[in-house]
Write a structure and sequence with these properties.
- There is one protein chain.
- The chain has four helices and seven strands; from the N terminus they run βαβαβββαβαβ.
- It is an alpha/beta fold.
- The strands form three sheets. Strands 6-3-7 form a three-stranded parallel sheet, covered by helices on one side.
- Helix 1 links the parallel strand 1 (21-24) and strand 2 (46-49).
């Protein structure tokens, strides 16, 4: 509603909104690399706006996020299937990772944005005897990869096509 202006106000009907959809995030400058890559992947349907780009005539619908179930790291099944379908529709899947077996090492994760505290490198999610483990896994044809070396599209391809993914549980 525009205070101080005469304007006809009609009810907002989300089903009549045409693509592309515009999304506003207050903390857009704090997005991690994979979040920025994900939004780049879907930019033909979902355009991210900065606060300065919103005009007086825009309708802003506040949404405080996906309903959380059980823990702060779990989204609802509906949201999961929506995102899976949306992202899968944007990717040309090839057979590059088909039937491959991977150990997902996290030994370089402390270099990624979001894993530093005031520019101090903090090693987390490390396996103390990882070298021994990777040598043993290699004997079974399991290749060690570092997800930090892949962009979001390649990560999606790996997780969709690889026959085995082994990684440390986040505890």
């Amino acid at each position: 509603m525009h205070v101080g202006k005469e304007k006809n106000i009609e009810l907002y009907n989300p089903s009549e909104v045409k693509k592309p959809y515009y999304i506003f995030f207050k903390n857009i400058d704090k997005f991690t690399d994979y979040q920025q890559q994900t939004f780049e992947l879907i930019k033909d349907e979902y355009i991210i706006l900065k606060e300065s780009e919103i005009t007086d005539d825009d309708i802003v619908v506040y949404n405080y996020g996906e309903p959380i179930t059980h823990t702060p790291f779990v989204i609802s099944p509906d949201a999961y299937y929506f995102l899976k379908k949306l992202l899968s529709s944007k990717i040309d899947f090839d057979n590059k990772y088909k039937n491959k077996k991977y150990f997902l090492s996290r030994s370089k994760s402390h270099y990624t944005k979001g894993n530093t505290s005031d520019e101090v490198v903090v090693k987390r999610r490390q396996i103390l005897n990882e070298t021994d483990l990777t040598l043993k896994l290699n004997e079974f044809g399991i290749e060690t990869i570092f997800l930090e070396d892949y962009d979001v599209i390649e990560k999606i391809k790996i997780f969709r096509n690889a026959s085995l993914k082994i990684g440390r549980a986040h505890v």
